[in-house]
Design goal:
The complex is a heterodimer of chains A (about 500) and B (about 280). Chain A has about 500 residues and is an alpha/beta fold. Chain A folds into three domains: about 10-165, Fumarate Reductase Iron-sulfur Protein, Chain B, domain 2 (Orthogonal Bundle); about 180-275 and about 435-500, FAD/NAD(P)-binding domain (3-Layer(bba) Sandwich); about 275-430, FAD/NAD(P)-binding domain. Chain A contains 22 helices and 16 strands. A five-stranded parallel beta sheet of chain A has the order 3-2-1-4-16. Chain B has about 280 residues and is α/β, with parallel strands linked by helices. Chain B has two domains: about 1-90, Beta Barrel (Elongation Factor Tu (Ef-tu), domain 3), CATH 2.40.30.10; about 100-255, Rossmann fold, CATH 3.40.50.80. Helix content of chain B is about 30%, strand content about 30%. Chain B is built from nine helices and 16 strands. The mean pLDDT of chain B is about 95. Classes of the chains: A alpha/beta (about 500), B alpha/beta (about 280). The interface of A and B includes residues 286 and 312 of A.
Chain lengths: ~500, ~280
């Protein structure tokens, strides 16, 4: 996997320096001394009460108001060497957008973010900031509490959306190049936005009927409202991006067919759409779901509004979700909202090893989710009608660290126990979607079915075909996909230029 | 959005849906399916493709009215638009010259088996067709099938056709008289199950086209998982065709009925709204 480069690229350094040296910035820095800035407390994200929100799908976090956002923005020290930017996979000029919030120019602030991030209202909600930009914040090093960069990003993006005056950058004259994007997830949307801004004709081909990929089918309404996604899509359409929904590249048409239609560059962002199962007995019982299916039914197909919407989902009285990632948290909190009396996370390691964001775990705990650590299922037990009625589990203890650096769970002999459940959601990760690699001759894939790329350029084994996000990484994050996408977009731009120059 | 070119009732409860889908019409092959959503609130349901016309840019499927989504579909007319019509999905049926092949179909499967029978005939097979209906007025496309079949049988509960019996017994009779190299069956789960059981004693290779519950239809969710030869397969991308002698039928029957109560609830709610 590609690591964030530790040395700031000269291009980025120059970009940041120019903004840093603006007169208004100098004055702002002078007006409030750093000592003063360090005194104020981090603004708490307002959220809905746990006992209310765990019964509906309305968003949990309410967002900072303007006053809170400006107060928080004041905490930023506007460092000469802003490490936070190094922690951002898409290299947002964080100090500039924060200082613009501080002076109350919210419109310019979001414009600054959008220079490098096409989906700020999404990233402001779902990025693991605590492990990225905020982990590098110099204020964190100084006093232990970083600037709430993510919350500020969300504020700026929401301000623009609610004000209804989305800034559309001037699009250069059409270049005549057609680019095909496979998959309307975070990676594909990012590449589309970047290339449309350069005047290329971009078409996104999406298999489902709603754009957004995992943002649409996976992340629940209570964490990322669909209305937010819709406004991001509307923005891309205004940039000239065309969406072809219900189109499975590889089935509806091959990449070669699209080439014949004049598409000269491709980006594969088809994600990690293949759910992993645990391969234990009883996994095909009714009531056992992959997290993909469970969340797709609820989010994409709106099963939480059944029977107004036609797609059903088992509500489950006693729900167990297997796994410790963000998707597991989304699933278990969904089960609770759909009326489960007990909704529990079953995780084979301990709390410290859980990959989920701390905020999600914390929210889940507040909402009454149970956590059973060091527990692994060994089989599902069904009734005569093939319905799930119980699970058998083993207790584990932590042994030596494994290849991931996390301590390996080791079963405790004789610790088997049976517990009644009627809903199980398997959330132990996804593998890259195999469809496109199966039908595209010459496309090289790795051991896990991941499309192989040159990590510096994101180019695949086929010239002019690039890839990024979970299709190359397996299950990762939205923002890493967008980081890949930014690199790919830059390289596609170069590739298209090389076509112009006839090389 | 995909525009409906034609929606007509073939026989009571069974409809033909022809949709303008030029890309799919260019690509599809026998045995593949489309995922359809009748309206923005509908379910995504798989329909096996029963014919296509690249010239007209159209794709047809035959469906039986069962639940809310198929009820809604049955009320749409030419000119109406479908929010989802995506495909072709699934692996195409394996078409080779096997020798003598029997193609069996019932209810919607009569339409679904048609392109497979036609392709098998074009590949040089001797094609015996066996269609199953409850009564003679439920048979459709008889002419189309007679044209491509070397032998044509209809099992029916009434005496209008040559075999007044249930399909597995008729199939067994045929196997006693003819050496079959392969059987291909499409229809409701019970029909294809009984066909597979009928051919099991003599070990005639029997390929069945499954129609389990699906959501995305592209391998993303696993709703359609089915145990084949002890291994979990996804019907949407590994199938929908499988060896009928290797399927865990009891599991498939159960999974098919996963949402039985919900389906009734949904239909009742829709009926109440549509026919107050």
């Amino acid at each position: 996997m590609a690591e964030n480069k530790k040395i700031m690229p000269p291009e980025m350094k120059e970009r940041l320096r120019q903004e840093f040296n603006q007169e208004w910035r100098k004055e702002l820095r002078k007006s409030v001394p750093a000592k003063e800035r360090m005194k104020s407390k981090r603004q708490k994200m307002p959220e809905r009460a746990a006992e209310l929100r765990n019964k509906d799908f309305v968003e949990v976090n309410l967002g900072l108001n303007a006053e809170q956002a400006q107060e928080e923005a004041r905490r930023c020290l506007d460092c000469a060497n802003p490490q936070c930017v190094m922690g951002c996979p898409v290299g947002i000029d964080i100090p500039t957008f924060i200082k613009l919030i501080e002076i109350g120019d919210f419109e310019k602030s979001v414009r600054k973010i959008k220079e490098t991030n096409s989906l700020p209202s999404v990233c402001g909600r779902v990025c693991p900031q605590e492990a990225q930009c905020e982990s590098m914040c110099n204020l964190k090093k100084a006093i232990g509490v970083p600037v709430a960069i993510g919350n500020l990003e969300r504020f700026a993006a929401d301000y623009e959306n609610s004000a209804g005056k989305t800034f559309i950058p001037k699009i250069p004259k059409p270049t005549g190049h057609k680019v095909a994007i496979l998959g309307a997830g975070p990676a594909g949307l990012t590449v589309a936005g970047e290339l449309a801004k350069k005047g290329h004709k971009v078409t996104i081909f999406e298999a489902l009927h709603v754009a957004g990929g995992v943002l649409a089918y996976g992340i629940p309404e209570f964490r990322l409202p669909k209305s937010i996604l819709l406004s991001e899509m509307a923005y891309l359409e205004k940039l000239g991006v065309e969406f072809r929904m219900n189109f499975v590249v590889g089935m509806t048409a091959s990449m070669d067919d699209l080439r014949e239609d004049g598409y000269c560059a491709f980006f594969i962002g088809t994600g990690a759409g293949l759910p992993n199962f645990m391969r234990i007995p009883g996994e095909n019982l009714i009531g056992v779901y992959s997290a993909n299916e469970y969340l797709t039914r609820v989010n994409l197909m709106k099963a939480y509004l059944f029977p107004e919407y036609d797609t059903p989902v088992f509500p489950g009285k006693r729900a167990a979700v297997f796994g410790g990632g963000n998707v597991a948290m989304d699933s278990v909190r969904t089960a609770k909202r759909l009326g489960a009396e007990t909704a529990a996370i079953i995780y084979r390691r301990s709390r410290a090893e859980m990959p989920a964001r701390e905020e999600e775990v914390h929210h889940a705990e507040e909402e009454g989710i149970e956590f059973h650590f060091l527990t692994a299922p060994i089989r599902f037990i069904g009734d005569d009608n093939h319905h799930l009625k119980a699970m058998e589990c083993l207790k584990m203890e932590l042994g030596e660290p494994d290849s991931s650096g996390r301590r390996r769970p080791v079963p405790i002999e004789g610790s088997e126990f049976i517990e009644e459940i009627d809903l199980a959601v398997v959330s132990i990760g996804n593998s890259p979607n195999p469809l496109i690699s199966q039908v595209t001759p010459g496309l090289k894939v790795g051991k896990w079915g991941n499309v192989e790329v040159d990590w510096d350029t994101m180019e695949t084994s086929i010239k002019g075909v690039y890839a990024g996000g979970d299709i190359i990484r397996g299950g990762a994050t939205v923002i890493l996909a967008m980081g890949d996408a930014r690199v790919a977009a830059g390289e596609i731009e170069k590739y298209l230029e090389s076509l112009d120059n006839g090389s | 959005m995909a525009q409906i070119l034609q929606r007509k009732r073939l026989v009571p409860n069974i409809h033909l849906l022809e949709v303008h889908a030029p890309e799919i019409a260019k690509k599809c092959r026998p045995g593949q399916f489309v995922i359809v959503m009748p309206d923005e609130k509908g379910e995504r349901i798989p329909l096996t493709i029963s014919d296509w016309d690249p010239g007209r840019g159209s794709v047809s499927a035959v469906f039986m009215v069962v639940g809310t989504s198929t009820h809604k579909l049955s009320l749409l007319e030419a000119g109406d638009e479908l929010p989802v019509y995506v495909g072709p999905l699934g692996m195409p049926s394996e078409i080779k010259n096997y020798g003598r092949v029997l193609c069996a179909g019932g209810c919607f499967g009569i339409g679904a088996v048609y392109p497979v029978a036609r392709a098998l005939r074009e590949a040089g097979n001797e094609v015996i067709t066996l269609l199953d209906v409850k009564a003679n007025y439920l048979l459709y496309w008889e002419d189309k099938f007679r044209k491509l079949s070397d032998k044509f049988f209809v099992s029916s509960r009434d005496s209008a056709y040559n075999c007044k019996d249930y399909i597995p017994r008729v199939l067994k009779d045929i196997i006693r008289q003819e050496d079959l190299d392969r059987v291909y069956a499409v229809g409701c789960t019970y029909l294809i199950y009984t066909c597979a059981e009928a051919t099991r004693p003599k070990g005639v290779k029997t390929v069945v086209s499954l129609n389990p519950i699906m959501v995305d239809g592209t391998g993303m969710c696993g709703a359609c998982r089915v145990t084949v030869d002890g291994k979990t397969k996804f019907a949407c991308v590994d199938g929908p065709d499988f060896d009928g002698h290797q399927i865990d039928w009891q599991e498939l029957f159960a999974r098919r009925k996963s949402y039985f109560e919900d389906e009734i609830h949904s239909l009742k709610a829709w009926e109440k709204e549509s026919y107050p």
